[in-house]
Amino acid sequence: MISLRDAALSYGERVVWSGLDLDVRPGEFLAVLGPNGSGKTSLVRALLGQRQLSAGTLTVLGRTPRKGSRHIGYIPQQTALPVHATLRARDLVRLGIDGHVFGPRPRTRTVRSRVNEALQSVGAAPYADVPVGLLSGGERQRVRIGQALATDPRILLCDEPLLSLDPHHQRAVTELVDARRRSHGTAVVFVTHEINPVLGLADRVLYLARGGHRVGTPGEVLTSAALSQLYGTQVDVVRVRDRIMVVGAPDEVVDPAHHPELPDGARS
Amino acid sequence: MTTGDGLWQQIFTFDDYGELLVLVRNSLIAGAALGLIGGLVGVFVIRRDLPFAVHGISELSFAGASAALLLGTNIVAGSIAGSLIAAGTIGVFGSRARDGNSVIGTLMPFGLGLGVLFLALYKGRAANKFGILTGQIVAVDTPQTSWLLGTSAVVLVALAVMWRPLTFASADPEVAEARGVPVRALSFAFMVVLGLAVALSVQIVGALLVLTLVVTPAAAATRITVSPVLLPVLSVVFATVSIEGGILLALGGSIPISPYVTTISFAIYVVCRFAGSYRIRRRGARKTVSEPG
Ligand SMILES: Nc1ncnc2c1ncn2[C@@H]1O[C@H](COP(=O)(O)OP(=O)(O)O)[C@@H](O)[C@H]1O
Ligand SMILES: [Mg+2]
After folding, report:
1. Which ipTM value was assigned to this complex?
2. Could you report the per-residue pLDDT of B38-63, keeping only the tens digit for each?
3. Do A82 and B170 touch (CB under 8 A)?
4. So where does this one cross the membrane (chain B) (predicted)?
5. pLDDT, mean of residues B239-267
6. Cα of B272 to nearest chain A Cα, Å
């Protein structure tokens, strides 16, 4: 479904990641982990065809990714929706289905029933008519999943969908995504900051860090040795019952050019 | 007492109303077109948070109109030219809201200054000068009416074509882009449409009060509905009622049309605001009841 070969991505001089080899199979749940600034969102952008690789090759569903494929469902990293969002949950889902089409079109019964099905499948039907701006974080994320799945995509890209959700809602979100890939064979690329909510679900992990990346099963990647090597400093992976704690990993990738110790008056 | 009566007569006089009505037929037609355009464009001005841009564009539109007045050419064309220059500049340099606002803040005084300069140089009737800033009915004569209607038609077609993708791009830009919506191109296209709509509004309510047609009605409508169908419909109704009501009332008095339009428009907004806060409280209550888990 997704295939990366010796892939690299950079913004100008700054190489975010390189030498990345990765294949994602149908129905597979790939968790993408890593600190802030390690290039998780950039990877999603590349998969969406919004950002070109600086080296290597990438194919999605057998071809170079291009914008606007209906086979890819996308849940963006949560930015506050515009304050003036005047849409209801059902309108947001509807836009995911036919919002890209120009010209006036009548509201058809088929589209309406697809919207209802999508909302129902994620348990968002009770607040289908509530403006998105009034929904809680967990409710909004359900609507987002409904929107992403409404076109029956073969790949689902989720960029930090668990951000600022409490554990209860985090579980709800991961369970919805997991159920989908089991029932429909949808390949899932799940970017997350927190390991534990996806620990039991992820088939494989891509861990991005400043010092490189690792791909493998959670058991292979989430070890003290592997992460210490990635971060270039002593990192301990501690297992407490069925949870994992990563101790000593810096939370942010610090670009040398932005390092506060450098005398750099021009930058702020 | 007598001065009070005199003042009242200035504001409302209805002698010879029937004859006057014939004279302003063109204004009423232009007003209807403007209500339609202003109401529809306003929906996206609110969705994209652009009221400040509207104000900025109208100042440059004013500069264009006063240049046309000075040169003795078509005022609508001058006003459109000024609008498009402003809208294009904002569209190119201010794709992000924060950049946008500083670009607009820089353009606005420049436009106003230019306009004042042109008006100072103009030696014709003072009423013409005043009209560009605060609006007038008499400015709408027959050739201008056809300009107004022609431009309205262009705006209307453009809006009909891009309505849905523009809604998507305004409400949910990341997913819209992933689904293949040309988000940046649409943003620019909308600025052009907005520029045209502003230039049209300047003709009737004047450069200083464009917001009353392009922002207030849509803002009022968003207070009472979130339906994607009702919202534009109500916005158009509010804009049309404001402007046609303003024209009909202004006919009876000797003061410019804009205070009538702004007052009606504002009154509608106030009513909607109260009605809306009640609705949202009710919905909030319902929501907590139905929240799962
Ligand atoms: N449009 C951009 N231009 C320049 N640098 C960027 C851009 N987007 C992201 N970056 C940089 O690339 C790095 C990775 O960013 P991102 O992919 O957003 O990381 P993550 O999602 O893992 O936090 C960061 O250092 C960020 O500053
Ligand atoms: Mg990110």
Report:
1. 0.88
2. 999 999 999 988 989 999 999 999 99
3. yes
4. 28-46, 67-90, 102-122, 147-166, 186-216, 228-251, 257-276
5. 88
6. 15
A257 Cβ closer than 6 Å to some ligand 1 atom: no
The CATH superfamily of B15-210 is: ABC transporter involved in vitamin B12 uptake, BtuC (1.10.3470.10)
pTM for this model (two decimals): 0.88
> Residue A163's pLDDT is what?
86
Residue B288 has pLDDT above 80, yes or no: no
B253: left (phi over 0), alpha (psi -120 to 50) or beta: beta
Res A254: pLDDT? 56
Q: Residue B292: its pLDDT value, please?
A: 40
- Closest Cα to atom 7 of ligand 1: A11
- The model's confidence at residue B257, banded by pLDDT at 50, 70 and 90, is confident
Pick the residue with more confidence: A56 or B107? Answer: A56
Q: Write down the pLDDT at residue A193.
A: 83
Mean pLDDT computed over A143-163? 93
- The token duo for A29 is 């749940």
**Tokens read off for A93:** 């889902």
Is domain A2-247 in CATH 3.30.360.10, yes or no?
no
In this complex, do A83 and B178 lie within 8 Å of one another by their Cβ atoms?
Answer: no
Task: Calculate how close chain A gets to B32, using CA atoms only, in Å.
Answer: 22
Rg (Cα) of chain A, in Å, rounded? 19
**d(CA B172, ligand 2 centre) in Å:** 17
Spell out a b/e string for B144-163, using b for 16 or more CB atoms within 10 Å of the CB, else e. bbebbbebbeebbebbeebb
Torsion of CA B238, B211, B82, B161, to 10 degrees: -40
pLDDT over 60 (residue B293): no
Q: How far is the CA of B201 from the CAs of A91, B83, B198, in angstroms?
A: 30, 11, 5
Mean confidence (pLDDT) of chain B: 84
CA–CA separation, B27 and B58 (whole Å): 20
What totals of helices (H) and strands (E) does chain A contain, helices first? 7, 11
Task: Please report the pLDDT score of residue A126 as a whole number.
Answer: 94
Subunit contact B291:A72, Cβ cutoff 8 A: no
A255 lines ligand 1 (CB under 6 A): yes
Contact in structure between A98 and A115 (CB atoms under 8 Å)? no
Q: Where are the domains positioned within chain A? A: 2-247
Query: In whole angstroms, what separates CA A13 from the centre of its chain?
Result: 25
Q: Which atom of ligand 1 is nearest to the CA of A39?
A: 17
Closest CA to A34 of A144, A155, A137, A159: A159
Task: Say if residue B206 is exposed, middle or buried (CB neighbours under 10 Å; 0-12, 13-18, 19+).
Answer: buried
Name the residue with the closest Cα to ligand 1, atom 5: A11
Ligand 1: nearest atom to the Cα of A12: 4
Residue nearest atom 3 in ligand 1 by C-alpha distance: A11
Q: Report the range of poorest mean pLDDT among A236-245, B19-28, B115-124.
A: B19-28
For ligand 2, the distance from its centroid to the CA atom of residue B113, given in whole angstroms, is 45
